[in-house]
Amino acid sequence: MKAKKIVALISCVVILAAGVVAVVYGYNYFRATNIEVTQNSDGTYKYSRIEPDSVVDIIVEKDVAEAKAVNNVAAIVFDFRGFDTLGESFILLTAIAGSFVILARNKKVKKEDKTDEV
Amino acid sequence: MKFKDGIKERNIIVKCGADMFLPFALLFGIYIILFGTVSPGGGFQGGVMVASAALLLYLGYGYKTTNKVINTEVLRINESSGAILYVLLGMAGIVLGANFAKNVFADLGNFGDLISAGTITFMGWTVGWKVLTGVSFLLLLLLGLLAPDLDEEDDEEEEVAE
């Protein structure tokens, strides 16, 4: 048991150190001072409700250039918003694990309860 | 419902309907999972459609047969392995020097092929496998509460639709 605790402590320290290093060195890298937000869309005037296909053109251009998927929804779900899908699938995983813990049939416990009641 | 030696038998129309619609549910769901990047659909939707096959089995044959046919332990293990495979495929983007879930194998085959989308296709398959096993496991878990005790009353079956 002590070896397991020591290994868990060491791994936690390593993960914490990696996170601190990533924050310190990545702060300047991800500051986004030199990035033009509108460079992909030729100005924000294209985001208008009057022309129905204005945003669709941008999405399809980015999709065909980078993701190369025919189905745009799949490209958005699994590529551009991959973290979102990860969270969704892990929500399902934790929900099923929790319901398994609560609802799983434990026959020994049931029999003990019945004998106690009698 | 027929009565035969005091045991309620299942209606033959429900049984035949389950027999008829089960292969279609399986085939259509698996098609939607596999062709998620080419046609409308995806992993979540196809996985839930395949999981409805477990429900059809329960409607036709009751909980005892379903519990015999489908091994829930295997489903539980495969769900976790699907989640791990999704994370590993997303980490391929980080290993090759890009963001999480970046499409790093984007140049496989011609544009419009099944595998031309690279990691999107494989991540869709892993999500489909995960949802398929997870939702069918959850359905069997919830239906197990409706069923009578398997040890004490082996002869009785659960009534579905009254």
Largest sheet of chain B: 2 strands, antiparallel
Find the biggest chain interface.
A-B, 31 and 43 residues
User: How many individual helices of chain B?
Assistant: 4
Number of helices of chain A: 5
Ends apart, CA distance between termini of chain B:
10 Å
User: How many strands appear in the DSSP assignment of chain A?
Assistant: 0
Taken together, the total number of domains of chain B comes to 1
Beta content of chain A: under 5%
User: In total, how many domains does the architecture of chain A comprise?
Assistant: 3
The multimeric state of the shown protein is heterodimer
What can you tell me about this protein's structure?
The complex is a heterodimer of chains A (118) and B (162). Chain A contains five helices and no strands. With 118 residues, chain A is an all-alpha fold. Chain A has three domains: 1-35; 42-80, no CATH class; 81-118. In chain A, helix 2 (54-67) packs across helix 3 (72-80) and helix 3 (72-80) crosses helix 4 (82-103). The longest helix of chain A has 28 residues, at 2-29. In chain A, 13% of the residues are buried. Chain B is mostly helical and 162 residues long. Chain B has one domain. In chain B, helix 1 packs across helix 2 and helix 3 (72-95) runs antiparallel to helix 4 (119-146). The radius of gyration of chain B is 20 Å and the shape is elongated. Chain B starts with a strand and ends in a 16-residue tail after the last helix. The A-B interface holds A 64, 66-71, 73-75, 77-79, 82-83, 85-86, 88-90, 92-93, 95-96, 99-100, 103-105, 107, 110 and B 36-40, 42, 44, 76, 79-80, 83, 86-87, 90, 100-103, 106-107, 111-112, 116-121, 123-124, 127, 130-131, 134-135, 137-138, 141-142, 144-145, 149, 151.
